[in-house]
Design brief:
11 helices, Glutaredoxin, single chain, Immunoglobulin-like, 382 residues, 22% strand
Length: 382
């Protein structure tokens, strides 16, 4: 069993930072604005389960703008510091591990306090800086997108969507480099989920990065969840490869809203779009008016659409079809992300589209807007 013993000092640096430390011993030396003199500092254990509350471990009192914690940790342990009166703010995160750890509390933004002195805390500081930069950029783009959407500026929306794609690639590159530069750091496993946001990253790429992490990280709860995700990613990539451009569309069938079975072969036209969507998917519903306009214009020339829903609630599925005036054919097994047709095509995000020619050959994947219409018109003109 891992041991973690703590004892706090209420005196200002009762033990000097220069005192020699025993094996696995750590000393946290904190400085904080003197307005907090007499306030308590709470040391808490990071929760092991999502939504759980941190577990209290020890308490120190601020004297002369200083506080200390001293204890033992056989392995690096993620910990939080809460300042009395500031509990509503995000806590200070650090790793309790052998060595002298210095914490300079930022009274204006507590969670941005500086933690230095040991390997994992130095790397954590780099991660926090990177994460703050990425979060700030993401928030700025989101605000711009909302503003453009509300003003119905289609050109601005398209431009920001392109910026989002470039930002996603940039974020993937930066977090990938961070993990590869710090594979043994405790925080690296927590940085890994940022890579999973990329729609372009393959299983092989992600698995190669994951394999560089220590076994202890892989065996953690988060590591196990990532392993499960990667296995699903492996299967999805294989399915996507089997249904890539140039391949014959595999046969499939599912119930219509009326409960009758309908196959893809029965729904095909001169050009066929397989449209994977769901009533709960905001981007899907936003795109529907464009698809409706294209269908109304080109259906008479040979365009058919087969909607495949990732809904689970049949009533909401039917209501969305009626509300968005989706007059083409629809099917769904009502299994959400377990929809077998989505798995058959390796689809892990929606909206997603496949364009088929008259022979059922896949000629394009994941086109939207003007690009989708241009491809359909090109095929109808042949």
């Amino acid at each position: 069993m891992k041991k973690f013993l703590l004892f706090a000092s209420v005196a200002a640096f009762a033990v000097s930072c220069n005192d020699s430390l025993k094996e696995n011993e750590f000393l946290v030396s904190g400085t904080i604005d003197t307005i907090y003199n007499g306030k308590q500092v709470f040391l808490k254990e990071a929760p092991k389960e999502r939504m759980a509350q941190p577990v209290a471990l020890d308490t120190a009192v601020v004297e002369n703008g200083k506080f200390t914690f001293r204890g033992m940790a056989e392995t690096p342990q993620e910990r939080f510091l809460f300042i009395e009166g500031e509990e509503k703010n995000a806590p200070i995160r650090f790793f309790a591990e052998e060595g002298n750890i210095t914490i300079n509390v930022n009274k204006d933004t507590i969670y941005n306090s500086t933690v230095t002195g040991t390997f994992n805390n130095e790397v954590l500081a780099k991660y926090n800086k990177l994460n703050n930069e990425v979060s700030k950029k993401g928030q700025e783009l989101s605000q711009e997108y909302t503003k453009a959407s509300q003003s119905q500026d289609a050109e601005a929306v398209k431009k920001i969507e392109e910026q989002f794609e470039a930002f996603s690639d940039e974020m993937y590159t930066k977090f990938k480099a961070f993990i590869e530069e710090n594979p043994t750091a405790e925080i690296s496993i927590q940085a890994f989920p940022s890579l999973l946001r990329s729609q372009e990253a393959t299983y092989e790429e992600l698995k190669a990065i994951f394999d560089k992490l220590p076994q202890s990280s892989k065996d953690s709860d988060l590591g196990k969840k990532i392993s499960e995700y990667l296995e699903k990613k492996k299967q999805a990539d294989a399915a996507k490869s089997a249904t890539s451009v140039g391949k014959q569309v595999p046969d499939f069938a599912a119930p219509t809203p009326e409960g009758k079975m309908l196959s893809v072969k029965e729904a095909m036209g001169k050009v066929t779009i397989i449209d994977l969507w769901a009533s709960w998917c905001g981007p899907c519903r936003k795109e529907n008016p464009n698809v409706v306009a294209m269908y109304n214009e080109l259906h008479g020339k040979g365009l058919n659409i087969l909607g495949v829903s990732l809904d689970e609630d049949g009533d909401k599925w039917k209501q969305a079809i009626a509300a968005d005036k989706l007059t083409w054919q629809h099917i769904s097994n009502l299994k959400g992300w377990d929809e077998p047709i989505a798995k058959q095509f390796g689809v892990n995000s929606i909206p997603a589209t496949l364009v088929l020619d008259a022979n059922g050959v896949i000629v394009a994947r994941d086109l939207r807007g003007d690009e989708l219409k241009a491809k359909v018109e090109e095929l109808l003109a042949k």
